[in-house]
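Researcher: Let's do a round of design. I'm pasting the structure tokens now; please hold your answer until I've finished.
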């Protein structure tokens, strides 16, 4: 008999074929006269964060502050992401329905964008862990810096806090997903390469 399992999914480039923040950025800056300058600045901030020159929460905050986005742009992003669900995820919708309580989303993306997409795959809100925007007057004004996912090794911290007792398998496309196995909080790591290969074929 197989061990009972929990399945931990990343969201960006795994559950969906796109990157949610990149889509939001594209939509929010579409008619911005300083679009190229802002994109260049965001790339610079991302690089500083990846190199460890600034904290993850600072990197997220600085990038979000350049967005000039709100509820309208979030909704447009959600619509695009609903049409970008990965082929293998769509093919296994029945599996998600039958195992919804054992499936978790742990993402460095934003819950306001993720939840409406994963709702269609029966994943309970209590099983979704992601960053949160601060929204005032329908505009994004910042992020919740107290969220564990806005900190270094945030995914590891979240899974440790969940303290799931059953066998845990992680499915994701990035190093932060592999870190869950490396840290010993997940038993198996499956590199999700479907969208990488799809991108290479374009």
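Researcher: That's everything. Go ahead.
Model: Designed sequence:
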């Amino acid at each position: 008999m197989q061990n009972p399992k929990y399945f931990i999914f990343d969201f960006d480039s795994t559950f969906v074929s796109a990157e949610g923040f990149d889509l939001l950025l594209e939509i929010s800056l579409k008619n911005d006269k300083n679009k190229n300058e802002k994109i260049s600045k965001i790339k610079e901030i991302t690089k500083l964060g990846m190199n460890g020159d600034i904290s993850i929460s600072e990197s997220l905050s600085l990038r979000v502050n350049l967005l000039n986005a709100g509820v309208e742009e979030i909704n447009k992003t959600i619509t695009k992401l609903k049409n970008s669900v990965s082929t293998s995820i769509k093919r296994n919708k029945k599996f998600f329905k039958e195992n919804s309580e054992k499936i978790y989303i742990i993402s460095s993306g934003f819950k306001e964008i993720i939840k409406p997409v994963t709702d269609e795959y029966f994943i309970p809100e209590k099983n979704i862990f992601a960053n949160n925007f601060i929204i005032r007057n329908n505009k994004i004004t910042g992020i919740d810096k107290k969220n564990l996912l806005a900190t270094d090794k945030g995914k590891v911290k979240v899974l440790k806090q969940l303290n799931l007792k059953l066998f845990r398998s992680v499915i994701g496309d990035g190093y932060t997903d592999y870190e869950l196995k490396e840290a010993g909080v997940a038993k198996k790591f499956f590199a999700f390469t479907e969208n990488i290969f799809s991108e290479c074929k374009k």
